[in-house]
Recover the amino acids of this structure.
């Protein structure tokens, strides 16, 4: 990646951190309906995500560029191979405001999105969805965030 692209990428990741620092409670109240187990699950996921972003942002440009292909972030495309039948699919994990089922852009709050966020290439996971459990192998991960995210209460 060239220097300008790295600066834009770094800026996008910083915006995500700022969003979760400043707007998390509004975001949470809007998107999370269950304040029991789901709250705990989402809180834990967001904490892990924020910690990961902070670690990545502390790196120099070369290491940051490598990290963008070694862990699925918000804005990452994740190549998934279903182990049962070998079927392959590409999902992009995004904020709920950027979902597009026709383009396989899935919310990180969806059952599959929660499991793909922070996944790594060559990792085997069991995706749990309303359709059942399926073993998958994570392939290539590539960060290429093109969307936005709500920055004000009106954006929620």
């Amino acid at each position: 990646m060239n220097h300008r692209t790295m600066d834009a990428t770094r800026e996008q990741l910083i915006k995500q951190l700022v969003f979760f620092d400043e707007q998390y409670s509004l975001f949470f109240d809007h998107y999370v309906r269950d304040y029991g187990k789901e709250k705990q699950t989402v809180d834990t996921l967001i904490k892990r995500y924020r910690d990961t972003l902070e670690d990545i942002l502390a790196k120099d440009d070369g290491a940051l560029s490598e990290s963008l292909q070694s862990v699925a972030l918000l804005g990452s495309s994740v190549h998934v191979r279903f182990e049962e039948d070998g079927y392959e699919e590409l999902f992009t994990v995004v904020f709920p405001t950027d979902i597009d089922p026709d383009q396989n852009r899935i919310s990180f709050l969806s059952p599959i999105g929660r499991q793909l966020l922070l996944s790594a290439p060559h990792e085997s996971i069991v995706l749990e969805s309303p359709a059942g459990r399926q073993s998958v192998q994570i392939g290539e991960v590539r960060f290429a965030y093109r969307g936005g995210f709500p920055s004000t209460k009106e954006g929620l």
Summary: The first strand starts at residue 76 and ends at 82. The chain is about 40% helix and 20% strand. The first helix runs from residue 3 to 22.
